[in-house]
Amino acid sequence: MKLLSYFRGEAFQRGVHPPGCKHTAEAPIRRLPFAPRLTVPLSQHIGKPSRPIVRVGEEVLRGQPIAEADGWLSVPQHAPATGVVEAIELRPSARGSWAESIVIRVYEASTQEVLWGAPQDIDAFPPQDIVLAVQRTGMVGLGGAAFPSHAKLTVPQGAKVETLVVNGCECEPYLTCDHRLMVERAADLMAGIRYAMRATGAGRAIVGVEDNKPEAAETLRRVLPPQGDIFVEKVPTKYPQGSEKMLITALFGVEVPSGKLPLSLGMVVNNVGTLAALGKLLPVGQGLIERVVTITGPGVARPGNYLVPLGTPLSFVLDYAGAQTQARQVILGGPMMGQAVASLDVPVTKGVSGVLVFRGEDMAGREGRKTYPCIKCGECVESCPMGLNPSMLGMLAARREYDLMGSQYHLGDCFECGCCTYTCPSNIPLVQQFRVAKQILREKAAA
Ligand code: SF4
Ligand code: SF4
């Protein structure tokens, strides 16, 4: 399939252009110290929760596996610091509910040295062994989806992957962690791309980078391997280009059919953060115990990109970054797709790419905004990248006609990008309504 951006430079249809607010784009990655206690939820991924393999009172080393995968669509968890297991119990999680978690009291003498894992020659591994090695790292999509990476890199029998698409768009306002990874860890990223190409059998890889990150694109181009099968392509900046279907359309001018995966076009999409982490962890046989998080927003005194041990409570992260205590809203992820958290006891998990802090004055005019009836202006329809009718979906949601939303108005194609809510002059919380409707349909299906 030919790359569209080579000759047209066009993006996907519709979408929006929110202010970038990428104030931390120049902020180098800095390491966050250990909090006194780290809380590692057993479910940081889509799929079955992991099974604990340690007991309360047991000492654990930094990097040691503390929970194993429970089946194929599951991943292990590793100790982010050396310490002792203080509890295995329900704790508040970023998803809002309480989740079974392993709580580690960190030894004061714990260092940043990873004390677990053995080097392995990934280059000599056949594809299926690379996939198993990826599962052992506990890797999930670090762009926020948290889908187990080994499952994504597994090519079903009869299918063929031609292209690995590497998502370096980072289209959400405020977030810059992927930008910094591309600039500072380009060699790790190239190694991770090579492993993913070998695992999937892809003959080429295309890194899509939005044109508001020229430094990232140039850095990657400088370290491209001599084989000539990895390419860096700039795509016009537009939200939600970080969605894999939108990026494929921007690069190739084709649409992934409704209800299908990129695999149906011979493609697999992975985020730059995920592949950079795999490039670093796989050769040394270690697990995922930390990730880069953009901590920013008007309520943060020392905004930046921090390498955060997984399980660190948000309260500790915000304290370190100098967040104001009168913060009114804390959002995990970006402002378009992220979720507000109710408790600062929630830990940073594998899918958390950003922590945004807004003060009372930043929320003025937003919080408690009055919702008006739909005026049929069509702005939401104009902005929906999936070509849905959010206005109609919103009306059906208000009438609780959830089945109709799914069967006739393609609710399943909505990936909750928030463009419709962003553009609606009546302040109708469309995407929130769609989340509720989807949840109800999922529960009905499960029952
Ligand atoms: S309907 Fe869904 S996919 Fe379309 S703009 Fe709204 S949130 Fe995005
Ligand atoms: S943008 Fe809002 S007011 Fe306009 S048609 Fe859509 S739901 Fe109605």
3D architecture notes:
By secondary structure, this protein is α/β, with parallel strands linked by helices. Among the domains are: 4-26 and 135-284, NADH-ubiquinone oxidoreductase 51kDa subunit (Rossmann fold, 3-Layer(aba) Sandwich); 379-446, no CATH class. Helices cover 27% and strands 19% of the residues. It has 14 helices and 17 strands. A six-stranded mixed sheet has the order 1-14-13-17-15-16. Strands 2-8-7-4 form a four-stranded antiparallel sheet, with no helix packed on it. Strands 11-10-9-12 form a four-stranded parallel sheet, with helices on both faces. It binds iron/sulfur cluster (SF4) (2 copies).
- State the fourth-level CATH superfamily of the domain at 4-26 and 135-284: NADH-ubiquinone oxidoreductase 51kDa subunit
CATH-scheme architecture of the domain at 4-26 and 135-284:
3-Layer(aba) Sandwich
Distance between the ends: 42 Å
Secondary structure tally: strands: 17
* Category from helices, strands and their pairing: alpha/beta
